[in-house]
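Worked example 2:
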Amino acid sequence: MHPQKNNKLGVKGVSCHKKSRKFRSYIKLNGKKIFLGSYNVLGDADSAYRKAEEKYFGEFARAV
C-alpha cells in the first residue's frame, strides 16, 4: 500500500463505512464515482482500486 496524506486511511480510493466497519473502494471516471465493492480487509479494497485503475487508465495508471 502507498501513503496518502489527504484521507484518514492513507489509501487512495478507499473509505471506511462506520456502521458496517467495512472498507469501500471507489474510483472516479469521467466525473462519476464508481463503486468497486465492500471489503473486510483494507488490502483487498486497495487491490480492487488498483485493478480498476489499471483497467480504466492503462498505461496512465500511477506506478507504485
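Residues 14-59 form one domain. The helical segments are 42-57.
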